[in-house]
Amino acid sequence: MALKQIRIHGRGGQGAVTSAELLAIAAFKDGKQSQSFPFFGVARRGAPVMAFTRIDDKFIRLREQVTKPDYVMVLDPTLTESVDVADGISKDGMIIVNTSKNSKDLGIKTKAKVVTVDITKIALDIIGAPFVNTPMLGAFAKATGEVSLDSILTAIKEKMPEKIAGRNIDAAKKVYEVTEK
Q1: CA distances from 158 to 66, 69, 128, 142, 154 (A)
Q2: Mean pLDDT, to the nearest integer, of 129-157?
Q3: Strands 48-56 and 4-11
Q4: What is the mean pLDDT of the chain?
Q5: Most CB atoms within 10 A, among 96, 124, 143, 165?
Q6: Which spans in the chain are helix H?
Q7: DSSP letter at 116?
C-alpha cells in the first residue's frame, strides 16, 4: 500500500478532529501506520475546520497539512458552496459527502469520484441527533476499503464513552450498509 492522505472538512463542533483520530486508530488496528492532526483557522463553533489523516504500510515521515488528498470527507454539505473541497484531489481520488443530494447536484468541480450518503438522516434516526462524524467513518470504510469496518467499530468503542458508543456503532454500521462503492 502506498501512502494514503485523507482530508476531512467540517465545521467547528462537528467532530472532524475526532473522525480523523478514530480513522487513524482504526488503520493502526488494521496493522498500518497512521497519523492524524487538526487544522483550525478561526477557533469558533460553526467555522470551517479541517482535519487530516495519513495511512501507510510503512513509517510516515510527513508532518504537514494534506494538500493533495487521495480522499476527502465532507461532514457538512453546505461547505461545498463555500470551500473548494476538491482542492488538490487527483482524478483517481474520492470525495464522500454527507448529503441527501445526488453527486451531480452538488456542483463540485472535479474529475474525482463523488460519493453521497445521507448520513444526517441515519444519525438522527439512530443516534437521535445530527452527529455525523463517526457514522461517516462507516461510509469511508465501505467506499474506499482502506480500513475495515471492524477496526472502525473497535476504535469507536474504545474512544467513546460507553453511554454513546453503542448508538454511534449502530449508525456507522448502517451507513456502511447503504454506502455504494
Answers
A1: 26, 27, 21, 21, 6
A2: 97
A3: antiparallel
A4: 94
A5: 96
A6: 16-29, 79-82, 119-126, 133-144, 149-159, 162-178
A7: E
DSSP secondary structure of 85-101? TTTT--TT-EEEEE-SS
Domain containing residue 24: CATH number: 3.40.920.10
> Are 35 and 66 within 8 A, CB to CB?
no
Residue tagged 456542483 (cell numbers): 107
* CA dist., res. 149 & res. 60, Å (int): 23
CA 107 to chain centre: 20
C-alpha to C-alpha distances, 81 to 52, 85, 105, 108, 152, nearest whole angstrom: 21, 9, 11, 9, 29
Q: For 28-83, write each residue's pLDDT tens digit.
A: 999 999 999 988 665 567 788 999 999 999 999 988 889 999 999 999 999 999 99
102 grid coordinates: 445526488
Cα→Cα distances 176→91, 107, 181, Å: 24, 25, 10
State the burial class of residue 178 (Cβ atoms within 10 Å of its Cβ: 0-12, 13-18, 19+). middle
Q: Is the model's pTM score more than 0.70? A: yes
Q: How many domains does the chain have?
A: 1
Beta bridge pairs of residue 51: 8, 38
